[in-house]
Design brief:
Layout lengths: L4 E6 L5 E2 L15 E6 L35 H7 L8 E6 L5 H14 L4 E5 L4 H11 L8 E5 L3 H6 L6 E5 L16 H15 L9 E7 L11 H5 L2 E7 L5 E9 L7 E7 L2 E4 L18 E8 L2 E13 L7 E4 L3 H15 L6 E7 L11 H13 L7 E3 L2 E2 L5 E2 L4 H10 L4 E5 L15 E5 L2 H9 L1
Parallel strand pairs: 4-8, 4-9, 5-6, 5-7, 7-8, 15-16, 17-20, 20-21
Antiparallel strand pairs: 1-2, 1-3, 9-10, 10-11, 11-12, 13-14, 14-16, 18-19
The protein binds thymidine-5'-diphosphate and magnesium ion (MG).
C-alpha cells in the first residue's frame, strides 16, 4: 500500500492544514493555501509500518571537536568562534547595501586562495557582476578554486556544490525550488530551500557536505525575512550592521551553536571592499584633544575586547510641552531612566529641554556600563561645563542613583591605559579589586553615586 498524503501550507504565514481553504485561519489571507505532496517515508515498509531509528549510547559516539575552516580573516573568524565549522549553516542578515555580498565574496575569495573549493551561488546578481566586484576588492588573479553558479534554481545549484568546502548563497530569498508553485521569497520556498540546504550540508552518518553561508534579507522591522524556522534551522545567525553612509561595519553573532554570541568584528568599507579593523583604538571618538561640553568617554566591552567610545549629548531649552529625547546608538528607554535619575537624584533638570544623545562612530552602546558616561555627557551639556578629555567613565547607574560594577574591569582599565587615558572613574565597589587591575599609569577614581560624580566634575 502506498500512501501519498497531501498537506496545504499558507504561503504567507506557514499555517498547515489537511484540506484546501480559501482563507487562511492563521493569518486570514485569501487564496494563500498551496499544496505540498508528502511521499511515504523511506523507512516505512509496504504495509506502512515504520522501522525504528537507530540508537547509540553516548559513549559510542566519537566526539570529534570538528576541525574548523579558518577564513583567514581574523574579525570574521573571531565572531564565528574560530572559523567555519564544516557542514554548518550560517545566515548573514543586514540592511540592503550594508555589504553582505561584499563580505561573503571576500571571505570566499580568501578561502579559495587558500586552496579550498568555494562555490558562490549568485541568485541576485549576474556572474559578470560578481567578477567585477571580485576585481574591485582583490588585486590578485581570481583563485582557480572559486566558482560562480549564476542561477536561482536551488536544487540545480546544490547539485553543483558537491565537493566544495564552502558555499555562499546570495540570497536565501531569491532562490527557489521550481517544483513548488510559489514565488521565491515566500514562506514555503524559504522553508523548503533551507531543508534542502540542510540535507546537502549534513548528508547523514556524521558526514559533512559543504558549509553554507547564506545571505538573508531583512524586513523593515529589522528581522530576517521569512519564517522563524529559518533562524532555528541554521547553526549561526550573524548580523551585519552599521550606518550605510558611514564606513564602519559591525559583524555580530545573534546565535552561534559553536561559540559565544558576544564577540563583534569591526570593518571599514572603502573603495576596495571591506578592511578589517583589528585595532579600533580611536575610532569611536571624535577628532581633536579639545574638551567640549556634552562629551564623555566610556570603556565598553564586546566579547573579548574593550572599546573606548565617546558619548555626545546636546541639550536645548525649548517651550514644547513634550520636549524631544533622541538617542542614536543608546537604548532610548535607558536614556529616559537616566534623565529621571539625573533630575531626581542629582538636580540636573531637563524637563523643558530637548535632549539629543549619540554614540560616536555608529557604535551600539548597549551595555549598562555606558550609563555613567551617558549621564555625565548629559550633565556636562546641561551645565555647559566640559569634562576632562582624558577621563573615562564606567558604571551602571541604578534608579537610586548609585553606581554598580560591570564585569571585565581589567579589560576596560587596560584599554584606557593603552590609549593614554589619564583617569578612569569606576563604581566604589571596585575598590577591593584595585590591586588586581593593571592600571599602567591610569588613575582610578572611585565614585559611589551619580550625585558624587556630577558634583566632582560638572558642579
Ligand atoms: P553589497 O555587498 O552589495 O551590499 P548588500 O549585499 O548587503 O546589499 O554592498 C553594497 C555597497 O557597498 C554599495 O553601496 C557600494 C559599497 N561598496 C564600497 O563602498 N566599496 C566596495 O569595494 C564595494 C564592493 C562596495
Ligand atoms: Mg547583496
Amino acid at each position: 500500500m502506498t500512501k501519498v498524503r497531501t498537506r496545504f501550507f499558507c504561503d504567507a504565514c506557514g499555517y498547515e492544514t489537511v484540506k484546501w481553504m480559501g482563507r487562511c485561519p492563521g493569518c486570514e489571507a485569501y487564496d494563500s493555501m498551496v499544496e505540498a505532496v508528502q511521499e511515504p517515508a523511506a523507512s516505512e515498509d509496504a504495509a506502512g509500518h515504520q522501522a525504528a531509528a537507530p540508537l547509540k549510547s553516548l559513549g559510542e559516539i566519537a566526539s570529534t571537536e570538528r576541525e574548523r575552516i579558518p577564513t583567514g580573516w581574523g574579525e570574521v573568524d573571531r565572531v564565528l568562534g574560530g572559523g567555519i565549522v564544516p557542514g554548518s549553516l550560517t545566515l548573514l542578515g543586514g540592511e540592503p547595501g550594508i555589504g553582505k555580498s561584499t563580505l561573503l565574496l571576500s571571505a570566499g575569495l580568501r578561502l579559495a586562495s587558500a586552496g579550498r573549493r568555494c562555490v558562490y551561488i549568485a541568485a541576485e546578481e549576474s556572474a559578470p557582476q560578481v567578477r567585477m566586484r571580485a576585481d574591485r576588492i582583490s588585486e590578485n588573479n581570481p583563485p582557480p578554486e572559486f566558482f560562480v553558479c549564476e542561477t536561482s534554481d536551488l536544487p540545480a545549484a546544490l547539485k553543483a556544490t558537491a565537493g566544495a568546502a564552502v558555499v555562499v548563497l546570495d540570497s536565501i530569498q531569491t532562490v527557489r525550488v521550481p517544483t513548488l508553485r510559489s514565488i521565491s521569497g515566500s514562506v514555503l520556498q524559504i522553508r523548503e530551500s533551507v531543508f534542502r540546504i540542510q540535507e546537502a550540508a549534513k548528508p547523514g552518518d556524521g558526514a559533512n557536505g559543504p558549509a553554507f553561508l547564506l545571505v538573508g534579507h531583512i524586513t523593515k522591522g529589522g528581522e530576517i525575512a521569512g519564517p522563524k524556522i529559518l533562524e532555528h534551522m541554521v547553526d549561526c545567525v550573524l548580523a551585519f550592521e552599521g550606518d550605510r553612509r558611514m564606513g564602519l561595519r559591525f559583524l555580530r553573532a545573534q546565535k552561534n551553536r559553536f561559540g559565544s554570541t558576544d564577540e563583534i568584528g569591526v570593518f571599514e568599507m572603502g573603495g576596495k571592499g571591506l578592511e578589517e579593523i583589528t585595532d579600533p583604538g580611536a575610532l569611536f571618538r571624535s577628532a581633536g584633544p579639545d574638551a567640549h561640553p556634552g562629551v564623555a568617554v566610556s570603556s565598553l566591552v564586546e566579547g573579548s575586547r574593550a572599546f573606548l567610545v565617546e558619548i555626545q549629548a546636546l541639550t536645548q531649552e525649548v517651550s514644547l510641552a513634550m520636549p524631544r529625547r533622541v538617542a542614536t546608538g543608546v537604548d532610548p528607554r535607558r536614556l529616559l531612566s537616566i534623565l529621571a535619575v539625573l533630575d531626581k537624584r542629582a538636580g540636573v533638570r531637563l524637563g523643558t529641554s530637548d535632549v539629543f544623545l549619540t554614540a560616536v562612530g555608529g557604535f551600539l552602546a548597549r551595555e549598562p556600563a555606558a550609563d555613567l558616561a551617558v549621564a555625565m555627557a548629559i550633565a556636562s551639556a546641561a551645565r555647559n561645563r566640559p569634562l576632562p578629555a582624558t577621563t573615562a567613565f564606567v558604571g551602571e547607574v541604578t534608579l537610586t542613583g548609585e553606581l554598580r560594577l560591570p564585569p571585565s574591569l581589567d579589560r576596560r582599565v587596560g584599554e584606557a591605559a593603552r590609549l593614554g587615558f589619564g583617569e578612569i572613574v569606576l563604581p566604589d565597589s571596585a575598590r577591593g579589586r584595585a590591586g588586581r587591575l593593571a592600571a599602567g599609569g591610569v588613575d582610578i577614581i572611585y565614585s559611589r553615586s551619580i550625585v558624587q560624580c556630577v558634583e566632582k566634575y560638572v558642579r
